Amino acid sequence: MAASAKTPISRTQTTSLYKPYSSSLQLPFKFLKVTPNSCAAKALSICCALQMEPKVGPGSQVPDSFGRFGKFGGKYVPETLMHALTELESAFRALSGDVEFQKELDGILKDYVGRETPLYFAERLSEHYKRPNGEGPLIYLKREDLNHTGAHKINNAVAQALLAKRLGKTRIIAETGAGQHGVATATVCARFGLQCIVYMGAQDMERQALNVFRMRLLGAEVRAVHSGTATLKDATSEAIRDWVTNVETTHYILGSVAGPHPYPMMVRDFHAVIGKETRKQAMEKWGGKPDVLVACVGGGSNAMGLFYEFVDDEDVRLIGVEAAGFGLDSGKHAATLTKGEVGVLHGAMSYLLQDDDGQIIEPHSISAGLDYPGVGPEHSFLKDLGRAEYHSITDEEALEGIKILHFNFLSRVCQIFHSILNVNLVI
C-alpha cells in the first residue's frame, strides 16, 4: 500500500544506508541466544574483528560477502548444505547478469504472471479517512492480488524455478503457511515439468483447505507436518530436513526473505519488481514518490519487495505491520520485531520470539501466513537502523477491519477482495 500527497517530490541522491558488518560464523545448532556477555556475542565480535570487508558504497549490492545485513543474516546451517548454498549464490549472481536469463524471466513475468500489476487509487477509501478539515491520505493499492495464483509469491517462485532448471535440479521442495507460496510453487513446477513437494503444517492445512486442494490439483505432493504447533515454522523445519538429505537433486524454493544466505538477498531481489513498478507508476500518476509505504510482515517478502527500491529515499516512510495475535502482552502473537530478541532460526540471525533459554516461543496469528516466530534479517537490520518502523495489530482488530472495511467498504465500494494478511494494513 502506498500513500501520497499530490505535490511532486523530486528524488534526491542519498548515501546508501547499508554499512559493512562482516563475519562468518557456522554453528551446528538451530537456535542461538545472543546477549551482550554471551559466548556467542564474543565469538561474533572476534569474527567481525578478523574478517572486515571493504566499505560498501552507494548502490552496492548488499548483504556483504558473508551474507550479513549488519549483524543479521549469515549461514547457520549443517555442513551438508554449505556447498548447495555456495552453488546457489554463484548461480544467482551469474544469472543476474545474464541477458538471456533476464529476458526469459521478464517475458514470463509479463505474459504468464501478468506483470506489471496496477497501482490503484482507492478513491472512496481515501475519502473515508479524510479529516473534518478535508485533509487526509491519498491511498493507493499495489494490486499484487492480480498476479497469476492471486498473490506476490509467484514473482519469487517462477524465478527460483528457472534458477533450479539452470542448476540441473529436477525436484523442488517448499514450505507454506497460508498456502499462497505453495500454490505458486506448485504452479511453476507444473509449468516447467518439475517434481513438487510442499510441506505444510497440519493446522494450516485445515485453515487453508482450498489452497491444499489447488496444490494437489496442480500435481504437487502436500506433506502434512504434525510436529510443534503444526504451522509455518514447523513446515520450514521439515523442508530443511528434506533438503539436507536430498541436496544433490533438490532445490528448496524458500518463500520468504528469511533463511540462510543467499535466500534473503535472492528472494528480495526477485520481489524488488514490486517497488520498482511502484516508483515508475507513482511518477506517472502524480509525478513524485509515495510519502508512506505500508505492508504486512510475517517473514517479510512482500514488504521487502516494496521497501527495497525506496530504502535510500529517506523522505519515504517505510512501515511494516506485524500480527499482535491476542495482544502483545498475551504471549500469543507473532510480533517478532516488536517483542523479539536476537537469535538464530532456520539458518539466519534475526529477531526471534524466544524465551530466556533461547527456545522458540510458538507464535500465534489468525492469519496462517503471519504466524512465524522469526523475520527476514534485512527487516531486523532496517529496524535497528531506524530506517523502517514496525507496528502490530491484534486478531480482533484484523477481524474488525474485515467486517467494517472489507465487506462494508472495500468490497462494496472498491469491488476489491483481500486476504486477512492484507487487512492488517487497513486499521
From TrEMBL:
The keyword Acetylation does not apply. Keywords: Amino-acid biosynthesis, Aromatic amino acid biosynthesis, Lyase, Pyridoxal phosphate, Tryptophan biosynthesis. PROSITE patterns: TRP_SYNTHASE_BETA. Residues 114-405 form the Tryptophan synthase beta chain-like PALP domain. NCBIfam families: trpB. The keyword Transmembrane helix does not apply. Its EC number is 4.2.1.20. It holds the Pfam family PALP. Pathway: Amino-acid biosynthesis; L-tryptophan biosynthesis; L-tryptophan from chorismate: step 5/5. It catalyses: (1S,2R)-1-C-(indol-3-yl)glycerol 3-phosphate + L-serine = D-glyceraldehyde 3-phosphate + L-tryptophan + H2O. Its cofactor is pyridoxal 5'-phosphate. This is Tryptophan synthase. It is an enzyme of class 4 (lyase). InterPro entries: Trp_synth_b_CS, Trp_synth_beta, Trp_synth_beta/beta-like, TrpB-like_PALP, TrpB-like_PALP_sf. One of its GO terms (molecular function) is tryptophan synthase activity. GO terms for cellular component: chloroplast stroma.
